[in-house]
Write a structure and sequence with these properties.
Blueprint lengths: L6 H6 L3 E3 L6 H5 L12 E4 L3 H13 L4 E4 L15 E4 L6 E4 L4 E5 L4 H9 L3 E2 L10 H6 L7 H4 L6 E7 L5 E5 L4 H7 L8 E8 L1 E2 L2 E10 L3 H14 L4 E9 L14 E9 L6 H10 L5 E8 H5 L11 E6 L7 H11 L8 E6 L21 E9 L5 H15 L20 H5 L3 H11 L15
Parallel strand pairs: 2-4, 3-4
Antiparallel strand pairs: 1-2, 5-6, 6-10, 7-11, 8-9, 8-10, 12-14, 12-15, 13-14, 13-17, 16-18, 17-18
């Protein structure tokens, strides 16, 4: 597309309009996943809602696809697309906390590190992932699994309202009392229905937590996994902890002999009575021989960002996900087989619990339907050398296939890759047809299709 056509767009926005002729185009088109090498027609780094409205109208009138970028963490790289208009929220990251009402409103470009920094000043938090550089918007719109979900539900369960620019350029607020069909769809339906410009969340009293990062030699993984299964089932919802397979990270509390070696890990936090913290973690320390551990009081934002340094922008990445009705012996055996062969120190295989408060929301109460699953495993492979790409993708696919017999049909859309698009209908299960109807109402021409796409009815 001729670059001069974007001159009219530049006149309509206050943000930065970047095209292929600009010096910072390559930096502007890059997303977190280094596998993604798309060349959008234009990247608009918006400064305010008016810029979003102008960008949506311009894209629609000029037959351009729209890609929306918040934190940019999308595994399939949905924050960009060839020949598309990218709405980039990099410069809109503000968070305003209302401590009296225990709410926070965040702009669409904020990361969870931004959000947690703002809310922690008031001793408050809400469920928000396990990597601080993840975008608030994308995680929430897809559901939002995190340390606090057993106690307080998913990120989307704590969403009170959202401001949205729809495909016709209208600005709407979606909440329980206003455009409630759109509000229902946004809570798990992804970026299918418009461009979310801000989100308002319910907050909870979370300040210092008793954190635990416990690393075991992988030969003890079966013992650890079965202990974790039983301990978590009996634990109060104040204990949020996931089971993981990694290569030993280069952290001070892990002896160097374990760096780069296959390990099994339990990571989480206790948010109940601080005096109970040591007793809550001691059984994990006793469950099997420990290679290294860090257990003690920690500010919640510090734990939420503890792994950020392992995931710099530009790593190559490929992901798969599932939902488990239980952490069965068969599922554990699949994890033992493939988790013991984690191919890089940046690769993360995590098994997240999604019980407790998550189960107290009905299957049809939000677009996120997976309210009966107890665990959500993700195989998030990351690597540096392009020469490892084929082998790593094969490992992820084989791993996912080995888990499939013990999994539900659906998978978590936030952890799906680009080749999982044919699974969208099964991922939304009983809510898919309702989502298609809402899509047809707010985006009948499917302008917003650079996502895990729901087709308009």
């Amino acid at each position: 597309m001729n670059g001069t056509i974007f001159d009219s767009l530049r006149e309509q926005v206050r943000g930065q309009v970047i095209t292929s002729g600009d010096a910072d185009y390559d930096e502007a088109r890059a997303v977190q996943n280094g596998m993604i090498d798309k060349r959008p027609a234009v990247v608009v780094r918006v400064s305010q809602v008016a810029d979003v409205i102008a960008s949506v109208n311009f894209a629609r009138d000029n037959a351009l696809a729209v890609a929306v970028r918040g934190g940019g963490h999308s595994g399939p790289g949905f924050g960009t697309a060839d020949d598309a208009l990218v709405i980039d929220f990099t410069n809109t990251r503000g968070v305003r906390v209302d401590p009296a009402n225990k709410t926070a409103r965040t702009e669409a470009g904020a990361t969870w590190a931004d959000f947690n920094h703002a809310t922690h000043a008031f001793g408050l938090a809400t469920t928000g992932g396990i990597v601080g550089s993840t975008g608030v918007s994308g995680l929430t719109l897809g559901g939002g699994i995190g340390y606090l979900d057993r106690k307080y539900g998913l990120s989307c369960d704590n969403l009170l309202s959202a401001d949205v620019v729809t495909a016709d350029g209208k600005f709407l607020t979606a909440s329980a009392g206003e455009n409630d069909d759109l509000f229902w769809a946004l809570r798990g339906g992804g970026g299918n229905f418009g461009v979310v410009t801000s989100l308002k969340f319910r907050l909870h009293p979370v300040d210092m937590v008793h954190a635990g990062i416990i690393i075991y030699p992988v030969e003890h993984a079966e013992t650890v996994a079965k202990f974790y299964r039983e301990e978590l089932a009996a634990a109060p919802e104040e204990l949020g902890a996931f089971l993981a397979f990694h290569q030993g990270p280069p952290v001070p509390f892990l002896p160097e002999e374990w760096h780069g070696k296959p390990v099994c890990v339990v990571v989480g936090m206790w948010t109940g009575d601080p005096a109970e913290g040591p007793a809550r973690w001691q059984p994990f320390l006793d469950a099997a021989p420990v290679a290294g551990s860090m257990v003690g009081p920690m500010p919640y934002p510090a734990l939420n960002s503890a792994f950020d340094g392992m995931y710099p922008k530009g790593l190559l990445a490929y992901w798969k996900a599932a939902f488990l009705p239980e952490l069965s012996d068969g599922a554990i055996n699949a994890h033992l087989e493939f988790g013991s062969r984690v191919p890089s120190v940046q690769t993360a295989v995590h098994i997240y619990p999604i019980d407790g408060a998550v189960h107290r929301v009905g299957v049809n109460d939000t677009a996120f339907p997976n309210r009966n699953a107890k665990f959500s495993p993700v195989i998030a492979c990351h690597w540096e050398d392009p020469g490892d790409t084929d082998a790593n993708i094969a490992w992820v696919r084989d791993y996912a296939a080995a888990l499939q017999p013990f999994s539900e049909n659906a998978g978590y859309i936030n952890f799906m890759d680009g080749d999982d698009l044919p699974r969208v209908a099964e991922n939304y299960g009983p809510n898919y047809e309702r989502l298609r109807g809402i899509k047809a109402k707010y985006d009948p021409q499917n302008l917003f299709h650079v996502n895990q796409n729901i087709l308009p009815a």
